[in-house]
Amino acid sequence: MQAVAINGSAREAGNTEILLQQCLKTLAFEGIPGELIRLSEKRVTPCTACAKCFKNRDGKCIITDDAFHEIYGKMCAADIIIVGSPVYFGSATAEMTALLDRAGYVARANGNVFSRKLGGPVVVARRAGQNFTYAQLMFWYMIMDMIVPGSTYWNIGFGLAPGEVKEDEEAMQTVTRFAENLAWLAKKIHE
User: Fold this and answer.
1) Cystine design at 67: which of 42, 73, 94, 113 (Cβ 3.0–4.6 Å)?
2) What angle do helix axes 94-109 and 130-143 make, rounded to 10 degrees?
3) Alpha carbons 152 and 174: distance in angstroms, whole number
4) For residue 113, what is the DSSP state?
5) 31 bridge partner residues
6) Percentage helix, strand, coil for the chain under 3-state DSSP, each rounded to 5
7) CA-CA distance, 115 to 15, in Å (whole number)?
8) How far apart are CA 67 and CA 45, in angstroms?
């Protein structure tokens, strides 16, 4: 089994990455290795709704950029996909939205390849917007026919300055339990 965590934040080692790393650390403890992908280090061009992925059905997007196919390939290979975003003006980052829009279209055009994979979102904000952004990202998991386990609360955290989310003990406990539930479920499915 393999996990991938995708960070939609512009900040390396910021609050979103801290929550994603906590998920990966918990999964690794449970015997499931994972990889962190930082969208801040990549360029994923937004979807143009050209529908060529539905016409070609070759598992590829015709838009050329430096990262989409690499990341999409890792998402396809993973058993667990976790995405994380800070809240930017009440929603997920443009980088995260660009990736999920394109990955969603290509996946659905090619047999819905994310169907029954496991995963879920994590979200961080300074003050507000977590619930909307969490729901925004959760809609992607639902329309992709994926399985999202619960936790002790929604996978949200509070923090502005890098590292501040560590002070949100409930957030750290929530994402830890979320990752434990991902591992438990993955093991049950693979029994």
Assistant:
1) 42
2) 10
3) 6
4) T
5) none
6) 45, 15, 40
7) 29
8) 9
Taking alpha carbons only, the member of 8, 15, 81, 68 closest to residue 39 is 8
Distance CA 98, CA 55 (A): 20
Which 3-state string (H, E, C) describes 85-107?
Answer: EECECCECCHHHHHHHHHHHHHH
Reference 126, options 98, 165, 73, 170; nearest CA is 165
Tell me the sheet residues that pair with 4: 35, 81
Q: What is the CATH code of the structural domain delimited by 3-186?
A: 3.40.50.360
Give the type of residue at 49.
A
Give, for all 191 residues of the chain, the pLDDT tens digit. 999 999 999 999 999 999 999 999 999 999 999 999 999 999 999 999 999 999 999 999 999 998 999 999 999 999 999 999 999 999 999 999 999 999 999 999 999 999 999 999 999 999 999 999 999 999 999 999 999 999 999 999 999 999 999 999 999 999 999 999 999 999 999 98
Q: Which residues of 181-190 are buried (b: 16+ CB within 10 A; e: fewer)?
A: bbbeebeeee
Domain ranges of the chain: 3-186
> Other C-beta atoms within 10 Å of 135: how many?
14
